[in-house]
Structures are given as C-alpha cells and as structure tokens.
Amino acid sequence: MIHSPYIRKPASVQSVMLAVLLALLPGVTAYVVQVASVVVVNLLIATVTALAAEALILMLRKRPVAPALSDLSAVVTAWLVVLCFPPILPWWVTVLGVLIAIVAVKHLYGGLGQNPFNPAMVAYCAMIVAFPSLMSQWPPAGQIDFQTQLDLVLGGARQLDAITGATALDAMRTGLRTSGASVESVLQQSGTFGAVGGRGWEWLALGYFAGGLFLLARRIITWHMPVAFIATLAVVSGIFWLAEPARFAPPLFHLASGGAMLAAFFIVTDPVSGATTPRGKLIFAAGIAVIAYLIRVFGAFPEGIAFAVLLMNLCVPLIDMKTQPVVFGHRGSRP
C-alpha cells in the first residue's frame, strides 16, 4: 500500500538525475573491480566533454547555461555512453560519441525533453557503424593492468591479439557457428564465460540490478519497462532454449551477459524517448527485448539492444496513440 503523504512535491530534474547517477554506482564499482578500472578515466573524459558541449550549444542558442549544467542530465548521458562503449577505446572515440549524443541528438531536436531518440543509443550505433573494429575491442575481464588500459585509451599501440577478447555474447555466437558445436561445448572451451554469463560481467549485471531496485524504491522509474523487458527477454530466449538447448543459450545467459540489466533499468526507461502510457511502456519494453534477442542470435552484431531501442523509439508515437486510457465518463472514447 502507498502510505502518506499522498501529495508529493514534484521531483526536480536535478534530483532525478542525481538519483540515476547514484543508482549507476554499484554497476560502475563492479566495472572497476571486475573488468577495467580505466572506465573511471573514460567517465571523467565523457563528463567534461558533455558539460563543455552543453555549455557551448546553450551559449550559441542564447539560453541560460548554469541551470542546464547543474541539472546533471548531460552527465547522465555521458555516463551511459561510456558504460555502453568498450573501456579501452581511444579517448577521441568517447569524445565523438558524447558529442553526437549531446549536440546532434539532444540539442538539434530542441534540448532537454525534446529528443525522439535515446542519445546514448544513437551514439553507440553511430560509433559501431563508423568504427566497427574499435568498438569490438573488449578487454578480457580483469586481465589487463591499469597502466596498459590507460595507454590504450590515450593512444598507445594496440596489439589486438594480446589485449582484446570476445565478449560472452560474441564468443557464444561465434562458437555455435562452428560445425558440430553446442552451447555446452562452447561454454566449456572458452574462459570468457562465468557461472551463468560473461565472466566478470555477471557482477556488473548484479550491480545494475541493485541500482534499478534503488530507482524503483525512489519511484524514479515505474515497474512496467524493467519487468516487461526482463520477462520478455527471459521468455523469448527460454522458448528457443527449450526447443533446441544445444543451439540456443538459456535465459540466464542472456540476462547476465551484455547490457541487458543496464538496458532494463537505465536505457529502456528513458522518460523522453520512451512510451508514456502504462500499457505503452509494456509494449515498448517488450518490443525492445524481442528485437534485441533476434539480433543477438540471428543478426550481424552480438549485441542488439541499441538498435532495438532506436527501432522502438520510432514506434513510440503510434504506441502512445493506441494505448491512451479511456477518458473518464466516456465509454470507449480516447483523447
């Protein structure tokens, strides 16, 4: 039950964004400990870039700068871009991705609250299309020292075979395309995998899940999108797995690998580019899960969440129009 007080003061943009940043901290901590500590440097680079770009665009538009910088929305976008990118990317790719998110996606559509597409997902898709090789260079979890990671970020020589490895999703997809391979044999042959997902990345998924629960408890987000996304991804992957377990990975693998938990609580739930009605939120998130799974298993990219989000962003006006609640006192009438 909901307890008093029943009338609450509207949350400010700054308080919401601060809560999102705090919710990301468990996942970021797991990232630092389990995968690549240089992500902290990337977060700093991205944050400075986002704030500088935001200030410059606002000055060019002759809009107040201080309120926009202090609302932390640009910082949240910068962090999400970094957490979606490989941690050993050259610094300039991170800068370019953040500039696309802030300048092209956010401000060219009118600024905060006006963008029809998720800025971080546009940045990811643009970079993976423009620089597919760099965006595929993920370090083996916890196996590269900080100095080597920093050298790679700052432009050091990239000895690919020595410093990079396949993600769990990529290793699974590539392994299953080998003649006679099964899910069980792929899991046994590669050190990329942990207990249920990618080694090290399971802790990130747990961290993002914990952060998501914090957002739910604070009522920053509603349950509709996270539950619909996680449940749909589990059901769809479960159906394929039950039909042919040797060929398709189980649901836990898909939930604990890649960016599933980050997407469920921090990407899909974007209040600007996502659906706004209760039923619409369920449809929107479920659609993302279905498309993401199909791309993961049958597509050209091992991770399909970013493309799925953008495709469903296109459907938001139609989803919202068709799921508007009935106007009170008018049977079957919708606004």
Automatic annotation (TrEMBL):
Name the keywords, alphabetized.
Answer: Cell inner membrane, Cell membrane, Electron transport, Flavoprotein, FMN, Membrane, Phosphoprotein, Translocase, Transmembrane, Transmembrane helix, Transport
Needed cofactors, names only, are: FMN
Q: What is the lineage of its organism?
A: Bacteria, Pseudomonadati, Pseudomonadota, Betaproteobacteria, Rhodocyclales
The family assignment reads:
Belongs to the NqrB/RnfD family.
Listed under subunit, the entry gives: The complex is composed of six subunits: RnfA, RnfB, RnfC, RnfD, RnfE and RnfG.
Keyword Cell membrane listed? The answer is: yes
Any stretches that span the bilayer, and where are they? 40-58, 65-83, 121-138, 223-242, 248-268, 280-298
Q: What is its EC number?
A: 7.-.-.-
Recorded hits in HAMAP family, A to Z, give: RsxD_RnfD
Q: Which organism is it from?
A: Aromatoleum buckelii
Subcellular location as annotated: Cell inner membrane
Q: Which InterPro entries match?
A: NqrB/RnfD, RnfD_bac
User: According to its UniProt entry, what is the function of this protein?
Assistant: Part of a membrane-bound complex that couples electron transfer with translocation of ions across the membrane.
Residues annotated as carrying FMN phosphoryl threonine in the record are T167
- Recorded protein name is Ion-translocating oxidoreductase complex subunit D
Provide the topology term for how it sits in the membrane. Answer: Multi-pass membrane protein
Main localisation, per the record? membrane
